[in-house]
Amino acid sequence: MTSIQRHMWVLALGAVMLISTSMAEAQKLSPEQVRTLKLMSSIKNKNPGFKIRLWTEGEKLTYKIGEQIKFKFSAEEDCYVYIIDIRGSSGDWAVLFPNEFHKSNWVQKGQEITIPPEGGGFTIDVQGPAGSELVKAFASVEPMFESLGSDVNSQIENKGGFATFSKGFLVTKQMAEEAEKLPEKNWTETELNLAIEADSK
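-> structure tokens emitted (201 positions)
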């Protein structure tokens, strides 16, 4: 999986889901966690009115455990953005963006954003186990996930300035429902598949 080191400020374009799909982790997942990952991956928009592009620095798709990784984003419209990390080994959620340090999730058309930003004070290091990783991005011209129900909000814990959830399936289900309410032209999503390899040292 990809993890965020301490002392981090997060800035990004899109709602990014870090979803581990490695075989080693899959053996540890409960049925609810498996359902969470499958449901998140299934949230699609086949007829978006605009596009969001997601890539890594240098266009790399293969990383070794311990390497640093940078994500880049750009969207064709002004939009609201989100970053959500689903930890495959536990099924827990961490909302990385917006957060206490960057409460506005509005990003301008054509703006290229890098995670982590230059001089941001943190790095993203690739961690094991080896396997594949799906990074999913969402962007919407209107607020997309702000109206999640009180039963979801009651689960939120604040850990180091980032909201976390212990029951990801309920949150994912409500996100899917919110996406279905929006006109297709108003939101978009894309995916990036990464290969994570063991360090040969």
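Helices lie at 23-26, 31-42, 150-153, 168-181.
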